[in-house]
Amino acid sequence: MAERVLVTGGAGYIGSHACKALAGAGYIPVTFDNFVTGWREAVQFGPMEEGDLRDRARLEEVMRKHEPVAVMHFAALSNVGEASRDPGLYWDNNVIGSLRLVEAMAACKIPNLVFSSTCATYGEHDGVMLDESCPQLPLNAYGASKRAVEDLIVNFAAAPDVDLNYVFFRYFNVAGADPEAEIGEFHRPETHLIPLALDAVRGRRDKLTIFGQDYPTPDGTCVRDYVHVTDLIAAHVLGLEHLRAGKGSDVFNLGTGRGFSVREVVEAVAKVTQEPVPAEDGPRRAGDCAALVSGSVKAADELGWAPDHSSLDEMISTAWAWHQRPGYKA
Ligand code: UFG
């Protein structure tokens, strides 16, 4: 019988892509989601269990029912601007929720955890290409909440009576959509650059605002390392196999090592859609780092990861296909 993996946040953008990939790899993905930011329509690849991470009794009930071999933990609030305005929300949802999850895993003896972390845990390092050994000095409450979750998982894994191994993936900027357009990126409200630029092209918003033109980068706009969600999730399946092969806990950046400025992304959106992107210059957004680019090939070397789909064109064209599918309502 197929083994199960509990996917917290399985109704979200990245979690739903994980469910599809897990199903493709022969697992049954069990979505656990409170549907605050997730979408029921995205749960297409396995059972759905509604619940909040902060409800440990509900988590244990679901774990005992499905007996998963591992947990992939995506459920989190992830909006840098919102986190800067309301840090308590992020510490409560992301940190307390993750604490309850890890407690429930320990109680139910589930030994494998793949955790969705972020390059936002690194903060700003003055042009340094970020690798996994960079000090984690987050600039905002979102990054701080993710760093705290890493810390608590490390502490549990080191406890003598807990059998827990983990893989942390520190994501750079995730973009693109399922090439079959069954699922894609949707946030309420949308705050991410590529979907906002596509919305501007389609006239779903007046224009895109480019946040800040005076950063110490080649064209003055922020530089990010964009990675296709399909590639990102392929790494998660490799991470799961790494854990199940008994190779132990580890941490990996997931980025391509190539940075693009906001202006370069906007130009690429215009090229792919063959439409101008209505855009205006605006002030900096609180909490933004000038540049976040991965300087690591560890995931390639140790997991055999190859981010083959992460050209800007492929990320934008899959996102564009998702935006244009019939019934799009994000
Ligand atoms: N940007 C704009 N205008 C917009 C939206 C974004 O200029 O309307 C800029 C941002 O200032 C930033 C870049 O586009 O420089 C990318 O912004 P996103 O909001 O798309 O992504 P972030 O870099 O803020 O955040 C994302 C994820 C986080 C993750 C972070 C790591 O949302 O979860 O990447 O860089 F931590």
CATH domain class name of the largest domain: Alpha Beta
The CA-CA distance between the termini, in Å, is 36 Å
Count of folded domains: 2
* Physical arrangement of strands within the biggest beta sheet: 3-2-1-4-5-6-11
What would you call the shape? globular
Class by SSE composition: alpha/beta
Low-confidence parts: none
Any guess at the CATH architecture of the largest domain?
3-Layer(aba) Sandwich
Which range does the strand content fall in?
15-25%
Q: List ligands, each type once.
A: uridine-5'-diphosphate-4-deoxy-4-fluoro-alpha-D-galactose
Helix-residue proportion: 25-40%
Offer a quick outline of the entry.
With 330 residues, this protein is an alpha/beta fold. Helices cover 38% and strands 17% of the residues.
Description:
This protein has 330 residues and is of the alpha/beta class. It has 2 domains: 4-175 and 227-254, NAD(P)-binding Rossmann-like Domain (Rossmann fold); 193-225 and 257-324, Alpha-Beta Complex (UDP-galactose 4-epimerase, domain 1), CATH 3.90.25. The protein is 38% helix and 17% strand. The protein contains 10 helices and 14 strands. The protein has helices spanning 13-24, 56-66, 80-85, 87-108, 141-158, 193-201, 229-244, 262-273, 298-303, 312-324; strands at 4-8, 28-33, 48-50, 70-73, 112-118, 165-171, 173-175, 208-211, 223-224, 226-228, 250-254, 260-261, 279-282, 291-292. The strands form 4 sheets. A 7-stranded parallel β-sheet has the order 3-2-1-4-5-6-11, with helices on both faces. Strands 12-9-14 form a 3-stranded mixed β-sheet. α6 (193-201) crosses α8 (262-273). The longest helix is centred in the first third of the chain and has 22 residues, at 87-108. The relative contact order is 0.14. The site of uridine-5'-diphosphate-4-deoxy-4-fluoro-alpha-D-galactose (UFG) has 20 residues, from α6 and β8.
